[in-house]
Amino acid sequence: MGCETPEKVLFNTLLQHVDQHTDNSVDYYIFASENVTSPSRKDIVLIRSKEMVLHEDHPLIVCKKKQSSLYLGLQALAKGQLDGFVTAGSTAGLVVLSKHLIPLLPTIERPALLATMPTKKKPIAVVDIGANVPAKSRALLQFAHLGAAYQISRGRLYPKIGLLNIGSEAVKGTLEMQNAYALLQTISEKNFIFSGNVEAKEVFNGDVDVLITEGFVGNIFLKTAEGIANFILDKLERSSSSSVLFLEELKKYLHYGKYPGAFLIGLEKPVIKCHGYSSAEAFITGVNAAIMDIKEKLCEKIKKNLTT
Amino acid sequence: MGCETPEKVLFNTLLQHVDQHTDNSVDYYIFASENVTSPSRKDIVLIRSKEMVLHEDHPLIVCKKKQSSLYLGLQALAKGQLDGFVTAGSTAGLVVLSKHLIPLLPTIERPALLATMPTKKKPIAVVDIGANVPAKSRALLQFAHLGAAYQISRGRLYPKIGLLNIGSEAVKGTLEMQNAYALLQTISEKNFIFSGNVEAKEVFNGDVDVLITEGFVGNIFLKTAEGIANFILDKLERSSSSSVLFLEELKKYLHYGKYPGAFLIGLEKPVIKCHGYSSAEAFITGVNAAIMDIKEKLCEKIKKNLTT
Q1: Does B232 touch chain A (CB under 8 A)?
Q2: Do B55 and A120 touch (CB under 8 A)?
Q3: Do A224 and B219 touch (CB under 8 A)?
Q4: Would an 8 Å CB–CB cutoff place A245 in contact with chain B?
Q5: Least crowded by CB within 10 Å, which of A98, A186, A283, B243?
Q6: Is the ipTM beyond the 0.90 threshold?
Q7: B13 and B41 in contact (C-beta within 8 Å)?
Q8: Taking CB atoms and an 8 Å limit, are B223 and A199 in contact across chains?
Q9: Interface of A with B in 47-76 (CB under 8 A)
Q10: pLDDT, tens digit, 9 for 90 and up, residues A272-303
Q11: By C-alpha distance, which of B150, B190, B95, B141 is closest to B296?
Q12: Is a pLDDT exceeding 70 seen at residue B212?
C-alpha cells in the first residue's frame, strides 16, 4: 500500500487498524518519502522513497522518477509482491505510471477512475472522475464497457448505462458527447443497456447503474455533490431541530471523509486512489476497500465480464 | 414576457399573481404557441406565435423562425415594447436570437447565463451555466468581467473571482482552463480580484463572489447541486426526526422549484431564462426577478460597472 500524504497520521491510524483487524494474514507495505519515522509493528513494512511525483510533473518526468513511492509501489504490484495498491498521490502521475507498469485489460487503452455514489435506489458507479481530461468519445465508450463490467461483477446483471449530459436530446453537449451518444446507441450490447443522456439532477434518482462522463466533468460532478452535502450537513448540525441519530444516518450516506476512494478501473490489478486531502480515516476506508476487492477477486471478475 | 412551456398552467398562475400584485403598473405580454386559450384579464396580452424554436434547430434555422415566440418576444424587447423578457424555451435558440436582436454590452462577444447559488456566506454568482458550450479562455475572461460587474451592481465591491477547476494548481484542467488562469492572473484589475482555481467542493464555503466556468461544466455543477439537494430533502422528509420548520427553511435555500431562473448577462436589456421543466411557481419567481431587475436598472448598472 503506498501513499504520499498524510503519512505520519496514517502510520498511527494504520497501527490501530492492524490491532483491530482480526485477520492477521494481511501485511502492509508503506511506500513513503524519507522524512517518516519507522512504524513500530513488524507487519507494517516501511519502504522509503528518494523521489516524489509532483502534480505539475510532465508524464515523461513521472516515468523517470523510478525511486518515487508511486513508482516503487506500482512496480511491486506488477511483480506480484503486493496484492493491491492504495495511494493519495498525484492522479495524473498515478494514471501515467499504472498504464506504464500494470497490464491493461484487453481492448482498454487507458485506466479510468470509478467512484460509487449513493442514490434514492442502488449506488451508482461513476466513470471517469478525473483520470482522463479531456476524454474522446472512444474513451467514453470504453468507460461504458468498464462500468458495465464493474456492476456485473458486483452482481448487477444487465446494468443500465447513462451518459452525463446537459439535456436528454441526442444533440446536447459537446461534439465528443454527441459522438459518444451515437456510438453507444448503435452498439447492440449483450450485457448492458444504454439509457441515453442523464441530466445531473436526475442521477440521484438512481435510474441508471453506471454514469459515464469525461474526467473533468466527472470530477466536478463528484466534488459538487460532496460540497453541497457538506453545506447541508453544516446547516443541519447548526439546527437544534435535527436529531443526532438522523444526522449520523445521513452522514453515512454523504460524509466524504469516510469515502472509500476511487477504483482505478481497466487494470489487471487492484489500485485505489484516495483524495489528496484524505483524512487517515478516509485512507483506512480505502485500504479496507482494497482488501475487499482483493478477496473478491474483483479485477479477475471485471476482466471476465468485459465485452467489447 | 414569453414562454414556450408550460403555457396553460402559467396562465392561471399568472392570473392569480396579477391579482395579488399591488403594483398595477405592470403589463404582461405572453408570446405563446397557437393552441393556448385566451387569458381573461386585460392586463395580460396574449400574442400567438405560428412557429416554435426546437432544441435541435440549427442557429441559422432559429434566426429564420421570425414568427416563433422567442423571436417575437426578443424583437419586442429590442424595440422597447417590453421592459424585460422571461422564457423557458430552448437555451441555444435564446442565445442565438438574443445575440441577433438585442445589443451586446461593449467588448462582449456573446451573452452568458448567470445563476446565483447559496453558500455558507453570501450567495455566489455562477457564470456560465449553459449558454456557451464549449467556451474558450477568451470567453471565460469575459465571464469574469461580466460576473464582477454583476456583483458590483448588487453592491459587492471588489468581488473575488474564482475559476471552477479540478484542483488549485495553475496546471489543472483543460488547456482552455489553463489559458484562462494565465490570462486572469496577468490582468491587473481595478475592480475585481482573481482568487485562482476553486474546486467544486470548496464553492459552498462562499470564499469567492463569482465562479466562472465553461457552460457545459457550469450546467453540470448547477444541476448536480439541485439533484443532491433534492435527494437530501427527500431523505429528510421521510425522516420523522426533522422538524417541519427546519425543512421549510432548508427548502428556501435549496428547493430549485422556487429558483428564479438564470440572468442572461452581456445584453443591454433584461432577459431571464427559466428551466425548461419550470413549474408555474418557478416561472412566476422568474417574472418577479425580472420585474426587480427592471426596477433596479440592473442592465444599466452592469454596463456602467463593466471594465475590460
Answers
A1: yes
A2: no
A3: no
A4: yes
A5: A186
A6: no
A7: no
A8: yes
A9: 55-56
A10: 999 877 777 788 888 889 999 999 999 999 99
A11: B150
A12: yes
Q: What is the DSSP string of chain B?
A: -B-SSSHHHHHHHHHHHHHH-S-TT--EEEEEETT-PPPS-TTEEEEEESB---TT--HHHHHH-TTBHHHHHHHHHHTTS-S-EEE-S-HHHHHHHHHHHSPBPTT--S-EEEEEE--SSS-EEEE-SSSSSS--HHHHHHHHHHHHHHHHHTT--S-EEEEEESSSSTT-S-HHHHHHHHHHHH---SS-EEEEEEETTTGGG---SEEE--HHHHHHHHHHHHHHHHHHHHHHHH-TTS-HHHHHHHHHHH-GGG---EEEETBSS-EEE--TT--HHHHHHHHHHHHHHHHTTHHHHHHHH---
pLDDT at A143 over 80: yes
DSSP class per residue in chain A: -B-SSSHHHHHHHHHHHHHH-S-TT--EEEEEETT-PPPS-TTEEEEEESB---TT--HHHHHH-TTBHHHHHHHHHHTTS-S-EEE-S-HHHHHHHHHHHSPBPTT--S-EEEEEE--SSS-EEEE-SSSSSS--HHHHHHHHHHHHHHHHHTT--S-EEEEEESSSSTT-S-HHHHHHHHHHHH---SS-EEEEEEETTTGGG---SEEE--HHHHHHHHHHHHHHHHHHHHHHHH-TTS-HHHHHHHHHHH-GGG---EEEETBSS-EEE--TT--HHHHHHHHHHHHHHHHTTHHHHHHHH---
State the average pLDDT for chain A.
86
User: Taking CB atoms and an 8 Å limit, are B232 and A250 in contact across chains?
Assistant: yes
Q: What is the pLDDT of residue B127?
A: 98
| Interface check B133 vs A, CB under 8 A | yes
Residues in chain A: 308
Q: For B41-91, what is each residue's pLDDT tens digit?
A: 767 788 888 888 988 888 899 999 999 999 999 999 999 999 999 998 899
Pairing mode, strands A210-212 and B124-127: unpaired
What nine digits make up the cell of A10? 496514517
Mutate to test the interface with A, among B57, B168, B216, B251 (most CBs of A within 10 A): B216
| pTM recorded for the entire structure | 0.89
Residue B3 pLDDT more than 60? no
C-alpha cell at B259: 429558483
